[in-house]
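Need tokens for this chain, all 97 residues.
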Amino acid sequence: MSSFDPAPDSDKSESTTPGTPSGTDAPQQPSARVGTIVWSLIVLALAALIIVAQLGIVTLNGTYVLIGLMIGAGAALVIGGLLSARKRDNQPTTGKS
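Here are the structure tokens for all 97 residues:
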């Protein structure tokens, strides 16, 4: 059996309560984390800068490149965290603590 085969019919015994739509308890699709996106953008930017420097179009100072990347990454992480927290705060509360 491969990992793509459907699971056996062991969960067919679940009962749904009448009057409850079956789609209300469906889990939400997890979104990408801000840190993952920021670090992947850093790697892409660094690769692009290395390619540009190797082509001889621009001469780059390594210290300034790293300082710029770290400032940009820090700002992106802070802004992404604030936006993520804002999105979570807009969801209705369930009244459970």
